[in-house]
Specification:
Structural class: alpha/beta
CATH topology: TIM Barrel
CATH architecture: Alpha-Beta Barrel
Number of strands: 10
Radius of gyration: 18 Å
Number of helices: 9
Helix content: 25-40%
Number of domains: 1
Order of helices and strands: EHEHEHEHEHEHHEEHEHE
Shape: globular
Largest sheet: 10 strands, mixed
Length: 293
């Protein structure tokens, strides 16, 4: 069967070693499943988010902080039945939610695992934002919280850094579908997100204009009172960026202040700012098979 799960629609069979752009087979490859405390406060809370890190990615950004797993060269094969066991084990550990990290290219097997599964915690779809609306519709009723990146409003930047010149329009259409499914965000009495849309954006060095355009797009397309927005400044230069000199440094204080001030003056009124001091590799967990074996 040819894969058309994501906007690339590469048509790879993803069987018998014939993987597609994402670099992984159709069977889910999982690198880690454990409580995680590196998300926004409404996701991590005090007990952590039950993060399931999947291998491979349909975007492959040149600056990826999770490059150790995003290139499809890690993880253990997991069936839908085993995924259910992992999900239930995380719930039993008392986490606030089930956080599916980079799940897009496994949408079918994840939907199978979630169908009919009784969970007392919300499911979080934590993705790059580069999604197919048709695939997202298969998840309706199975996912309560969507947490997409909105990486680019600049098509040229998306082409250069992620080989996805259609990212801006694809991501906006996908995030609109996410909002249609969840509606306005809902918090519990402890400030933990139970339902809704949390849009994330990572400021990139040398590209503050891209961030301003993303903020404009969010402001223009979503009710300000109904969504959460997280402005992130954790960008950390990774090895292998010799061809991308602009990415070989962290975000400057001036760039951060410009973006944060622009967000302040927008209509977006709920969400988070990440301090520039967060730009360290300590935020990257160990992808050692914890919770999978």
């Amino acid at each position: 069967m040819s894969c058309t799960l994501c906007p690339r629609r590469c048509g790879a069979p993803r069987r018998g070693g014939k993987n597609g752009f994402c670099g992984v087979p159709a069977e889910a490859m999982v690198c880690r499943a454990a409580p995680h405390f590196g998300e926004e406060p409404c996701i991590s809370g005090t007990r952590g988010s039950g993060a399931v890190f999947f291998a491979g990615c349909n975007l492959r950004c040149v600056f990826c902080q999770n490059h150790a797993i995003s290139r499809g060269e890690a993880g253990q094969p997991v069936s839908a039945a085993r995924l259910r066991e992992i999900f239930l084990a995380l719930q039993a550990q008392g986490v606030h939610n089930l956080n599916l990290v980079t799940p897009t290219h496994y949408a079918d097997v994840i939907a199978e695992a979630l169908s009919g599964l009784s969970l007392d915690i919300p499911v979080v779809w934590n993705s790059s934002g580069y999604e197919s609306v048709e695939t997202l519709r298969r998840l309706e009723g199975l996912v309560q919280i969507y947490m997409p990146d909105f990486k680019y409003a600049d098509a040229a930047l998306a082409a250069r850094y992620s080989a996805a010149p259609d990212y801006p329009e694809r991501a906006l259409a996908a995030i609109k579908e996410m909002y249609r499914q969840t509606g306005p965000f809902e918090m519990d009495a402890d400030g933990i997100l139970r339902r809704g849309l949390l849009i994330r954006h990572l400021i990139l060095p040398g590209a503050p204009e891209n961030t301003l355009r993303v903020i404009d797009a969010v402001e223009d397309n979503f009710p300000a009172e109904h969504i959460l927005f997280s402005l992130m400044s954790q960008y950390t230069p990774m090895p292998g960026l010799e061809e991308f000199p602009a990415l070989q440094r962290r975000v400057s204080a001036a760039e951060y202040e410009r973006c944060a001030s622009y967000l302040d003056f927008s209509d977006i009124c709920h969400g988070y700012y990440q301090s520039p001091e967060s730009a360290t590799e300590e935020m990257i967990p160990a992808f050692d098979g914890t919770g999978v074996k």
